[in-house]
Amino acid sequence: MRFELRELPPETEALRREVRAFLAGALGALPPARRAFTWSGFDPAFSRAVAARGWIGMTWPERYGGGGRSALERYVVLEEMLVAGAPVGAHWVGDRQSGPLLLRFGTEEQRRRFLPRICGGELFFCIGMSEPDSGSDLASIRARAARTRGGWIANGTKLWTTGAHLCDVMIALFRTSGGADGRHAGLSQILVDLHGPGVTVRTIRDLAGHEHFCEVVFEDAFIPDDMLVGAEGAGWDQVMAELAYERSGPERYLSCYPLLAELVRVLPDPPGERAAVAVGRQVAHLATLRQMSISVAGMLEAGRNPALEAALVKDVGGVFEQALPGVAQSLVDIEPRAGAGASDFQQVLAHCVQHAPSFSLRGGTREILRGIIARGLGLR
Ligand SMILES: Cc1cc2nc3c(=O)[nH]c(=O)nc-3n(C[C@H](O)[C@H](O)[C@H](O)COP(=O)(O)OP(=O)(O)OC[C@H]3O[C@@H](n4cnc5c(N)ncnc54)[C@H](O)[C@@H]3O)c2cc1C
Asked: Which CATH number fits domain 248-376: 3.40.50.360, 1.10.530.10, 1.20.140.10, 1.10.274.10?
């Protein structure tokens, strides 16, 4: 494992100013409690405004509607969006992983059909991997797509699918041959139209009362042949490649950034020594994580596979952002509280306290990531 020090090229400064100016106009007086949702906030109109600036699929080839720009430029856009608490959730998955997956494994017809619409903020994607009894042990999935004339018939259930009730397309992992004991063999990735017959989407309420993830049930759902992504039976390797994209971005340590900003606002000026030391420590962690994340973006830019480094950033980033609500509570004697009458700080704190437990689950649990890191280091 190696994190090479990368500087953001000077030309990204102009882009950063451009993104900031756009966000100042587009977000206006969006309250901090809404900004706290950051990449969980789903706002199609906002995504279309981002698309109009060319900031979705910005590293993809121009012939598919992409911007042909660098991974480091994309990093700057993501960073500014997350720091501002912009509601980027609608296009996040398509931009981060579904599009890159189609670029790598999809057919030319799939690329021409889907990528321009992702870049345009017109088509939103979700991730269909987990099932009722399969999360960490993803190879044990049971949802099955069986061959039929002209396509596949899918049956089974996907669980915890973020945004399935609002998205258009799921890239789902199905068992297409062999039994569940076949493990890694016989799995395939298939594009599923979530509005098609035989597909039922039900939202699940989380412990904070929000409905963002779903159960998706397939009952004899017909999926045409041309929706298979990559080779039949090669789904396991493709999913592993997709997870590297999923874990590689700055959202893995910036989910609670709006809380850090609110904390600094409510602390006295100048803060006491204890607060100055504690906030300084968080900012130092943040600066280090940022450097590691830029390094990952640099590796992507160089065409390398930073799966191991990305897993480390997600793990260390998760520890950082899960600890932040506790740090804030230890410095300010204000209880977290949601809803009317609560201050901005209370609402953002309440949001982060309630959502932080999920940070070490979504995108692969802490234990699984540490297993990957240990294997990468040759320790197991
Ligand atoms: C907010 C949120 C959004 C999500 N969005 C999506 C989505 O869009 N699409 C999707 O497909 N999934 C999604 N998920 C599901 C997520 O990927 C799974 O929850 C996760 O992979 C864990 O699987 P599980 O819930 O089945 O837990 P389990 O796999 O049952 O794990 C339970 C516990 O056992 C530990 N454990 C399991 N196996 C091992 C092992 N071998 N060694 C050590 N410890 C182990 C785990 O670390 C964990 O602590 C989301 C989850 C959350 C919380």
From this structure: 1.20.140.10
